[in-house]
Amino acid sequence: MEPIIPIVAVALLVGGLIGQGFEMRKIRNSVKTDEELNPKNVFTDKRNIKWYIMIGAGLVLWYAVGGKFGQ
C-alpha cells in the first residue's frame, strides 16, 4: 500500500506537465497573427489552471510521503 501514493504523485506530476505542454501548444496555435505572442499571456491563460492544480497536487503528495518509494 505504501508505494501507491508516490506512484500516484509521480503520475499526477508527469501527466500535468505533459498535459500543460499540449495545452500551451494549442494556446500558441490559437493566438492570431495580429496579437503578440507573449509568454505572460500563455502562462496565465485560464486553460492552464487545471494543469497547474494537477502538478501542484503531485508535488504535495510527493512531499507528504517524504519523496520515497515504499521505504
Brief digest:
The chain has 71 residues and is an all-alpha fold. It has helices at 4-30, 39-43, 49-64.
> How many strand units?
0
Sequence stretches where pLDDT stays below 50 over 5 or more residues: none
The oligomeric state of the chains shown is single chain
Helix content: 55-70%
- Give, in order, the helices and strands: HHH
Mean pLDDT: 84
Beta-strand portion reads under 5%
Q: Largest beta sheet, briefly?
A: none
Structural category is: mainly alpha
Instruction: Give Rg in angstroms.
Output: 16 Å
* Count of DSSP-assigned helices: 3
User: End-to-end distance, in Å?
Assistant: 11 Å
Please tell me about this protein's structure.
The chain has 71 residues and is mainly α. 7% of the residues are buried. The protein is 68% helix and 0% strand. It has one domain. The chain contains three helices and no strands.
Features of this protein?
71 residues; 3 helices; mainly alpha
Set down the secondary structure blueprint:
Elements: H1 4-30, H2 39-43, H3 49-64
